[in-house]
Write a structure and sequence with these properties.
about 25% strand; 2 domains; 9-stranded mixed β-sheet; 8-stranded antiparallel β-sheet; 17 strands; alpha+beta; D-amino Acid Aminotransferase, Chain A, domain 2
């Protein structure tokens, strides 16, 4: 989806013009993928704009950086305020938010440690990642021939830019085969996740999702849906899944900050059907939560 330019980007503690937020072509991260990032959303609510689980995202951002020996130079609290400041200065009621920390210009070579760390926060208007129709009609997905990288190769616990080349290959293949999205298996052949989403299946009223140990990103939207499902008294289990578990699911859906909650209509041409009652109930409740209409989840919203 195309970017919609706004006025300012937060860059190393300063608000700079959108078209002046630039780096040198010899920036280390451009050559070696030495960057970590987050993706999250701000929503309109009756009490004003609010970022969904902002502190949780910034905590994960800091953990990703720490695992790569990147000193962000800012506390989590300072980054939380920087996100809010960037939204306010751009006068956005709702938006997508992209914090990014990367190894900058100054040295070349595989060793990232001598390169300086830079931190940016960008915000922009961004509609539903897979399109409004997808929220109602669902998406068609295909199991990718590209396997998810191993947890001891590129750890999914680190939300690193380098990890997403793997996802990019799978997404290109899915698009070329006429699918909206890919499902990736891990090296053992177990179901892992989409190219940028966690996934859930529903069978006989029970919701299942792959465990973190199978190589998935520990998604914040994933966690939110599991908590919401528990509040709605739907049983949720974390268990390893295989490809055929997707074919015989009663319902299936994918979650992520960009994708939100999207039903899956078919897998490898096997029709699951329109969004089922459990998926729709979870989706409806999720959107009520992020728009400040569920008081039990008010602590997930951080006002701008």
């Amino acid at each position: 989806m195309e970017l919609s330019a706004v006025d300012k980007i937060w860059m190393d503690g300063e608000l700079v013009d959108w078209d002046k937020a630039q780096v040198h072509v010899l920036t280390h991260a451009l050559h070696y993928g030495t960057a970590v990032f987050e993706g999250l959303r701000c929503y309109e609510t009756p009490e004003g704009s609010a970022v969904f689980r902002l502190t949780d995202h910034m905590l994960r951002f800091e953990r990703s950086a720490r695992m790569l020996f990147m000193d962000l130079g800012y506390t989590v609290e300072e980054l939380v305020e920087a996100v809010k400041e960037t939204i306010r200065v751009n006068k956005l009621a709702s938006c997508y938010i992209r914090p990014l920390a990367f190894r900058g210009y100054g040295v070349m070579g595989v060793d990232p440690m001598p390169a300086p760390v830079q931190v940016v926060i960008a915000v922009w208007p961004w509609d539903t990642y897979m399109g409004e129709d997808a929220l109602v009609k669902g998406v068609d997905v295909g199991v990718s021939s590209w396997r998810k990288h191993g947890i001891n190769s590129l750890p999914p616990a680190i939300k690193a830019s380098a990890n997403y080349l793997n996802s990019g290959l799978a997404r290109i293949e899915a698009n070329q085969h006429g699918y909206n999205e890919a499902v990736m298996l891990n090296e053992e052949g177990k179901v892992c996740e989409g190219t940028g989403e966690n996934l859930f299946v529903v069978r006989e009223g029970v919701i299942s999702t792959p465990p973190v140990s199978d190589g998935i990103l520990q998604g914040i939207t994933r966690d939110s849906i599991m908590v919401i499902a528990d509040a709605l008294e739907y049983p949720v289990i974390e268990e390893s899944l295989v490809r055929t578990d997707l074919y015989v699911a009663d319902e299936m859906f994918m979650t992520g900050s960009a994708a939100e909650v999207v039903p899956v209509r078919s897998v490898d041409g096997r029709v699951i059907g329109d969004a089922g009652p459990i998926t729709l109930d979870l989706q409806r409740t999720f959107f009520r939560v992020v728009h400040g209409e569920e008081s039990d989840f008010e602590d997930w919203l951080e006002r701008v």
